[in-house]
Amino acid sequence: MRVWRKMVAGAALAAALPGLAGAQQAAPRPDQLAFRALYKELVETNTTLSVGSCTKAAEAMAARLKAAGFPDSDLHLIVDPAHPREGNLVAVLPGTDPKAKAVLMLAHIDVVEANRADWTRDPFTLIEEDGWFYARGASDDKAQASIWVDTLIRFKQEGFRPRRTVKMALTCGEESDGALNGAELLATKYRDLIDAGFALNEGAGGLLGDDGKPVSLSIQSGEKVYQDFTLSSTNPGGHSSRPVHDNAITHLAGALVRIGDYDFPVQLNDTTRAYFTAMAPLVDAETGAAMRALVADPTDAAAAAVISRNPTWNSMLRTTCVATQASAGHAPNALPQRAEANVNCRIFPGVPVAEVQAKLIALAADPKVTVTPDATTLLTPPPPPLSDAIMKPIRAQADKLWPGVPIVPFQSTGATDGKYLNSYGIPTYGLTGIFADNGNSGVHGLNERVRVKSLYDARDFLYGLIKTYASAK
Amino acid sequence: MTLGRGLLATALALSLSGVASAQTATPPAVVRPDQLAFKALYKELVEINTTLSVGSCTKAAEAMGARLTAAGFPAADVQVVVHPDHPREGSLVAVLHGTDAKAGAMLLLAHIDVVEANPADWTRDPFTLVEENGYFFARGASDDKAQAAIWVDSLVRLKQAGFKPRRDIKLALTCGEESEAYNGIEDLVTNHRPLVDAAFALNEGADGLLDENDKPVVLEVQGGEKVYQDFTLTITNPGGHSSRPVHDNAINRLSAALVKIGGYDFPVAFNDATRGYFTRMIPLVAADKGAAMKALVANPDDAAAQAIVTSDPMWNSMLRTTCVATMVSAGHAPNALPQRATANVNCRILPGVPVEAVRQQLMAVAADDGIAFTLAHEPSKASPPPPLTPFIMGPIEAEAGKLWPGVPVVTILLTGATDGIHTNGAGIPTYGVSGIFGSSDGDGIHGLNERVRVKALYEGRDFLFALIKDYAMAKGQPKG
To answer: Quick one: CA torsion of A176, A177, A180, A183, rounded to 10 degrees?
Structure first.
């Protein structure tokens, strides 16, 4: 996932809970060893944008599915000719009820760059050590990708006939701006192939306490929508020896001050209501009381003020817009002919981009400052509902593995590929079931790792969950 | 000059009604033999390319030095000064000795380097003197080889005539005025002070203004110039991910400071030049403006009068120190909170106001301790405005009255900058006066097809020659 995800699951809970040491292992089961071989193959296929190939990884996973009995007609290797190394794989296990909407398992198989010289171990060799798997992509996101492939193989080998079609999409280009985003490609050009009633994706795991025991299981529903706006002011300029008050920088600066002072209104939805309800008992008394009060009455400004002291919680409560870049003028001795700023907004799900733009224009309150959204505007649908149909199977499966551990829904302030699917009408939830502590998991950094036990448990969890969803009416 | 000439003329042009435009200057009726001799000298100087990129001031200085020695100057009194690190940026210094050892010298100052000129962009070759429709066209035809040629020509004529001035007449033709790296007059006043030391200096910096019918409107005399100073405003912040913003943001705080600075006006203050200017302008402008100028000269704090006079950006800039944000740079990624935000605030400081006082005032206006205010470059030396005493103004008024009877002489404060900043800063009161009349559009200075009216150039030559003789024989000092 992209850099910013960890902040919510991490920072918000971290306030209350510190980290922990390694975990001990039982001997792996034979099916776990089979999974491990698949996982190893995927991890060891370099899929960085610079020198790797998602296409190669997709082909390897397709070969495993084919070997398990999937006909070629249900395996779709999708490669844009302009991006030959950025291939995607879609696999379909048809359901028995054509009217039942499919369930989609989504994961990306590209990884962040990793320099061998900087790593303690080879980043493209799966190394198991002291209860950990180390490798680039060991967690992000080849853990879940492997679990999805493994799940389909097991279903096939068991002769499982799901009621609803189970689909899998392994995509490329999630980690790099310069790459072709596979999830967007599929959502726009291959919609029928991946169309589904809902999807599961990365975006939320579980939290381990100091003692190594599970504290909470997170499910991500909805994410704020990334939108940049350009604020621009132009002016005839002139020689700086005879300045006038009508100055492009001054106009822009005035608008930025007013935007910087403004707080968008507090909003709650099902996800954040559930999140704050679940968090209330886990945080300090004053904050917990404020969370309860705000859930009961979203207009409680005093409660919102207490919660908003934490920037992550503040960002969960409202659309935020912040100036991130500014550039103006062309010479120290000339009046500026142009002043521009980038205002980065994270829009609360369901709020139209146009509404935010209108608010920024009103705040700027200056006809000499224009406010323009950048080209990559996405729809901002409300978060997918945390309905019983979604939540009950999660609760049931979680209770088998982690009895009594609370399930904490949250809305991420950053972005995963779920934004494309949500934007194009496929409700997408973030749920891996992979537990980690607040320590350094190395995601996007050095020595990326995942607990062996956490990975195997998550595999059991997701396998059971998908089976339940696939069979559900 | 370096910056912004023609700006004052623009201010005047706003208030003067023109009838019809005259695109062709009136050619001089008869060209005198001495004018033809001057033209040859001027042509030689203009046609020596003295751009920083490919030209050589040293070559031009040597050519002018040769003309002086040919006219009878002893070699000891003519010297080409070349800084070893800048072999193509030489200066010429010369002296015509006076009879009174106690009389302070006068310095004739002009720069001989020119702004770059790309022949492909010009209608005519910029380094060939072309006379056409009553104009001389060439790079440097006006800025500043017109005055440089007049100075050399004056010394040649004075020598040939056996003129014995009371005071020393010194000449400094310098390089590097138009560019940033090396400045010839700065080098001379710092490292060769005896060669250029003087009680006062004449320089570029003010001309005469023609109306749209090429009729002289005013003759300008520059008495001082504002001091150029850039300040860098910097604020840093821990930054962070833009998905979780906080109110303490580097861009917002810098913006707040810039809004306050943008809304602030430094106090109005007069000096000799601006008091003289506005007093003379009263009858030349619209009645309401004239009344406001009169009121303001009487009481600089008259808010109503201030509002009327400062509504003109040029007049505003003559009346007060100005500081304006000219550049901003902040942030490193669209999705990250800015770790740094910087702005350049460009100030034009009234002569005599310390740079540090302006810095302190900006900090007080911004009222944010988190923003650092630093000098973007070494400050210029303090440059008090030269006194506009009868010693200086008397001869100018007298000679102007002979050539352009009835045309008022107005003193100005230059809001741009000339080399006078260096000589004033070195304690040599320096006055900008050329006597060369031009139109308010600047006649292509620093731009394409730079030009000067032939008649205006010859009249300026006559005016300055007479003025030099007046000053050379005058008793007393500029300070009275």
So the answer is: 80
First to last CA, chain B: 28
| Cα A171 to Cα A83: distance, rounded to the nearest angstrom | 13
Q: Which residues contact A14 (CB under 8 A, 6 or more apart)?
A: A438
Residue found under tokens 């870049």? A325
User: Which CATH number does B7-225+384-473 carry?
Assistant: 3.40.630.10
Q: How is domain B227-375 classified at the architecture level of CATH?
A: 2-Layer Sandwich (3.30)
Tokens of B307: 């509002």
Domain annotation for chain A: domains and CATH numbers: 6-223+382-471 (3.40.630.10), 225-264+319-373 (3.30.70.360)
Are the Cβ atoms of B313 and A7 closer than 8 angstroms?
A: no
Q: Closest approach of chain A CAs to the CA of B246, in angstroms?
A: 6
> Tokens 């050379």, residue?
B472
Where do the structural domains in chain B lie, given as residue ranges?
Answer: 7-225+384-473, 227-375
Contact A137, A43 (CB under 8 A): yes
Its ipTM equals: 0.76
Q: What is the spatial distance between Cα B340 and Cα B331, in angstroms, rounded to a whole number?
A: 6
H or E stretch covering A199:
strand A198-201
A331 vs B contacts (CB less than 8 Å): 326-327
- For every residue of B54-112, DSSP letters joined together read T--HHHHHHHHHHHHHHTT--GGGEEEE--TT-TT--EEEEEE--S-TTSPPEEEEEE-
Helix (H) or strand (E) holding B172: strand B169-174
Q: Are A166 and A105 in contact (CB under 8 A)?
A: yes
pLDDT tens digits for chain A (473 residues)?
554 333 344 434 443 333 334 445 678 999 999 999 999 999 999 999 999 999 999 999 999 999 999 999 999 999 999 999 999 999 999 999 989 999 999 999 999 888 888 888 999 999 999 999 999 999 999 999 999 999 999 999 999 999 999 999 999 999 887 789 999 999 999 999 999 999 999 989 898 887 888 988 999 998 888 899 999 999 988 888 889 999 999 999 999 999 999 999 999 998 899 899 988 988 899 999 999 999 999 999 999 999 999 988 999 999 999 999 999 998 888 899 999 999 999 999 889 999 999 999 999 999 999 999 987 666 677 788 889 999 999 999 999 999 999 999 988 876 788 888 988 889 999 999 999 887 667 777 788 899 999 999 999 999 999 999 999 98
- Cβ contacts (< 8 Å) between B258 and chain A: which residues? 249-250, 253
DSSP for A397-423, written as a single string = HHHHHSTTPPEEEEEESS--THHHHHH
How far apart, in whole angstroms, are the C-alpha atoms of residue A254 and residue A249? 8
Side chain identity at residue A410, one-letter code? F
Task: List chain B residues with CB under 8 Å of A244.
Answer: 313
Determine, for residues A323 and B226 on separate chains, whether the beta-carbon distance falls below 8 Å.
no
